[in-house]
Amino acid sequence: MEVAWSSRYDTGIRVIDEQHQELFGLLEQLRKVMREGDSGPALERLLAELVSCSEKHFATEEAYMARFSYPDLAQHVSEHAAMLTNLHELLRKFRENHQVMALMVPTFMEGWLKHHISDGDFGFVTFLKARNLT
Q1: Least confident window among 31-35, 96-100, 124-128
Q2: How many domains are contained in the chain?
Q3: How high is the pLDDT of residue 71?
Q4: Does residue 45 sit within a domain?
Q5: Whole-model pTM?
Q6: What is the pLDDT at residue 19?
Q7: Do the domain assignments include residue 3?
Q8: Which CATH number belongs to the domain containing residue 53 in this structure?
């Protein structure tokens, strides 16, 4: 199953869209490395990069939302914090049991990312458009 960026996830905010594309790209790399049978250092590096890119992306989104006084910022921050906790836990578990976790991470992250963009980020885009801020 390909993990690909789709225009349906385009928020119209260039920096956020670029970061979303980077996250989707990392997920596809994870799936590729798993298909090739590597369950060690390459996967761990990609998982760590996924955590790092997620942290950077969440900080970008939160700063952008704060700049425009987005009323649902606290909820969005809470979702980000929960996701980062989950990602850090997945990375920790991966280090304990490569095979099991390697299969779970891309599927989990892809589902979360698609849901978060569709339900969370588009709320912010709607807020900006209603105020002619885009």
Answers
A1: 96-100
A2: 1
A3: 93
A4: yes
A5: 0.79
A6: 95
A7: no
A8: 1.20.120.50
